[in-house]
Amino acid sequence: PTSGKVFIEGRQTNGGGVELRKDIGFLPERISFYDNLTPVQTLDFFCELRGADKAVVSSLLRDVGLDNAANRRVGTFSKGMTQLLGVAQAMIGAPSIYVLDEPMGGLDARWVKVVRDRLRMLNEQGATIIFSSHILSEVQMLCRRVAIINKGRLVAEDTIENINDHLNLRPRLWIHSPGLGNKAPSWIHEIEGVEDVVVKDDTMLVTCDAAFRLKIMMTMNERGLRIEDFRTVEPSLEEAFVRLLSGEEG
């Protein structure tokens, strides 16, 4: 490291040490296993390396949905199945810290949910999980804190809510009104509390203070705008990411 200190369970790492590393589950972005081994043999091998009980292997494979492929050779696996096996090996020994690089990479929607639910469960059981990802929707769904890095430099580190507040990114009102036709009524901006309006087809995104939402919709209705559907759209991590990397901070 060029600077700073790393502590694991209150112990400073000082560059490493086998005992400290035993408490870390690691998944690299490009995981690779021996093609001629089965998932059972693969996890048995990693249990030996970590000094863990091999009795956990069957439950780990079941946890990631690979129990039906337990005796297939890993060389026949798809990228997604290999990724799931990588998640299973990271859980060997029930570490208290996980470092995962793109854990959802190569997974279809079904397996993304399996991994997502597993990470949530591990966290609820007390594990600390650090993962990097370009799938910002997954980051927003799972993480309590985020760190945004641009060209090797830490741009922001905080809760998503605090980052949004810092960038003045606020929830918006999504309104569907048949007949808008890509154009907002001229009087929309006259309504108290309306700050910005974006119209696409028959929908509007209205930026406004939360306290004015009901009043805004009531005024629209009184002026003859038929509101067929509406909902609140929370600011996305993607918006914050783009704003921070473009240097626009509110």
Features:
about 250 residues, about 20% strand, about 35% helix, elongated, three-stranded parallel beta sheet, alpha+beta, four-stranded antiparallel beta sheet
What does this molecule look like?
The chain has 250 residues and is of the alpha+beta class. It is built from nine helices and eleven strands. The strands form four sheets. The chain has a four-stranded antiparallel beta sheet, with no helix packed on it. Strands 3-4-5 form a three-stranded parallel beta sheet, with helices on one face. The longest helix is centred in the middle third of the chain and has 16 residues. It starts with 6 loop residues before the first strand and ends in a 5-residue tail after the last helix.
Radius of gyration: 24 Å
Helix-strand sequence: EEHEHHHEHEHEEHEEEHEH
The largest sheet, given as strand count, sense and whether it forms a barrel, is: 4 strands, antiparallel
Distance N to C terminus: 33 Å
> How many H/I helices?
9
Count of DSSP E strands?
11
Strand sequence of the main sheet, in spatial order?
A: 9-10-8-11
Q: What is the strand content? A: 15-25%
* SSE class: alpha+beta
Quote the average pLDDT. Answer: 86
Strand and helix layout:
Elements: E1 7-8, E2 11-12, H1 18-21, E3 24-27, H2 39-50, H3 57-63, H4 79-90, E4 97-101, H5 109-124, E5 128-132, H6 136-142, E6 146-150, E7 153-158, H7 160-166, E8 172-176, E9 194-200, E10 203-208, H8 213-222, E11 229-233, H9 237-245
